[in-house]
Structure formats: structure tokens, C-alpha cells
Amino acid sequence: MDPPWEEYHRRAKQYFSTEKLDDPWTFEQIAELPIDEISDNPSFLFLWVGNEGLDEGRALFKKWGFKRCEDIVWLKTNKTVPKDARLAMKNSKILDTSSTLQRVKEHCLVGLKGDIKRTSDSYFIHANIDTDVIVDEEPPNGGTEKPKEIYQIIERFCLGRKRLELFGSKDNIRPGWLTVGMNLPGTNFDYNAYHSQFETDRYLGTTNEIENLRPKSPKSSQREDALPKSQGQGMMNSNVSPFMGQQSQSRSMNQQQNSLLGQQFYSPFNSNPNGGGGM
Predict the structure, then answer these.
(1) How far apart are CA 143 and CA 138, in angstroms?
(2) Which residue would you say has higher pLDDT here, 240 or 61?
(3) What is the DSSP string of the chain?
(4) Which partner for 147 in 59, 104, 136, 271 could form a disulfide, CB atoms 3.0-4.6 Å apart?
(5) Are residues 107 and 187 in the same domain?
């Protein structure tokens, strides 16, 4: 979920006239969304809050019945921007009087509704596969596009098959997701077809191979005993750790599971195709 924060609007105004921009939403307007009613228990909410909206994001979680469990940070790079354009971009950003430092990051807060235990709820989560930092290029001209890696993190982590994106655009349409936004090219949403995907199972499921590869945190008393004596302290200098190799294999297996996500659906806000009722 990536609401049209006022911060985004202010940033885009440096490149476009306000007539070409959608109006930002206030905190109160965002808070009125019935997220608590459409979210299951348990479920996760990934909420982009830009650089300034950390407090607002936590307040939204509280209103919708979620508790913050993670904070994913996107560090923006500009390696593909020519030097002259990069300098012009830097100078234009100085015009933003709301900041005292150059802003090169955004936050995606992760909220949990209900209770999940990593040791017993492997049917729903696949923990320790990714980190909480994304390093990716900043979109040009104050764009609000987010790194595609956030989808990969979500799909590897959460094994539920019902995946909804709010405030999406045509670039966000993705297999296995229902994308809802203000500027989508029509709709292909069919209530019966959508829900028929979940008649047999709402979870991707797991396999013994995935479970064997799942990263585990050994008890502290077992860590030294499990490490070969010949490696000892020198293990820190190894080029590839067993844990990282385990992560890579587990990611690959999880991606195979994600191929079973299902069809992509999309629909603009306020659309009720086929008279099918709510989503």
C-alpha cells in the first residue's frame, strides 16, 4: 500500500505543474480506508510512508489493528543519471525547505494483525530470507515508483495467496495480486473468478525440501559445538557462509512455490464489476 502522501506531491511539484498531478490525500482520508475490515487475521500490511510519515504510519497501524513488526528501508541510488542531470536534481531538492539534509531513503513499515510465531507458523511465513534494506535506483522526475524487489520480499516472506495492492498503477499489475488504484486502464476483476482461486487452499504450502533449507537460529549453547574447530574465529573471513548459501537455496525453492500464485486482477477505486459485491 502506497498512499498519495503530501510529501510525494510536494516532491513532484518540482518537476510538473500541479494541474498534471493528482491531489494528495490527507492523513484523515487515508485513515478512513476500512483496512481493518478487509484484512484477515492473521495478515501483514506493507505500508510505504515516504521519508516523513513514520509517525503517521504507526498511527494508521494502531487504528487498523496492526502492530509494527519491521521497517524496510529503501536507499536510493542515482548511478544511471548523467552527472549534469544529477547535479541539477540535487540543486532542485535543496528547494525543499522541509528538510535540512538531502533525503535519499524511504520507509516501508510492516504491520502484523494477529499473532504469528516463526517457530510454529511456517505455513504462513518464511522468515530470515531477506534483509530489511533495499538498494535501488531513484525514479526520475520525483516519481513515486517503488523498487520491484519489495514484491519479491513480500512473496518470499508471506505464504498467503490473497495479495492486495492499494493505490497501484498499471506498472504494479502482477500475477497473483489484485491491484486497485485510481489510474488503472479499466478493470478485469471478476468476483467469482478471483475467489475461485482460493477454494482449495489459501496458502502456497511448503515442502520438506524448503523446511530443511529454512534458516534456523540454533541455541547459543549449540553454536560453538556446531562449528568445526579448524575454522574457529576464521569463519568470519570465509567468502561464503553456510547461512548465506542456505538463504539462496531457500529463496529459489520459495520462488518455485510463488509460481502457483494465480491470475493477476486489477480494478480502479469505486469500481464494482459484475455486481459482485466486495473484494
Answers:
(1) 8
(2) 61
(3) -----HHHHHHHTTTS-GGGSPPPPPHHHHHTS-HHHH--SSEEEEEEEETT-HHHHHHHHHHHT-EEEEEEEEEEE-TTS-HHHHHHHHHHHTT-TT-SS---EEEEEEEEES---TTT-TTTB-TTSS-SEEEEEPPSTT-----THHHHHHHHHB-BS-EEEES--GGG--TTEEEEESS-SS----HHHHHHTTSS-SB----HHHHHHS-----HHHHHHHS-TTTGGGGGG-SS-HHHHHHHHHHHHHHHHHTTS---EEEETT--GGG----
(4) 136
(5) no
Does 128 fall in a domain?
no
> What does the pLDDT read at residue 236?
34
- What is the domain extent for residue 94? 1-119+134-141
Q: How many domains does the chain have?
A: 2
Statement to judge: residues 199 and 256 lie in one domain: yes
- pLDDT band at 276, cuts 50/70/90? very low
CA dist., res. 44 & res. 132, Å (int): 15
Both 34 and 108 in one domain: the answer is yes
Which residues 6+ apart lie within 8 Å of 103 measured at CB? 51, 93, 96
Provide the pLDDT confidence category of residue 20 given band limits of 50, 70 and 90: low
**pLDDT at res. 23:** 87
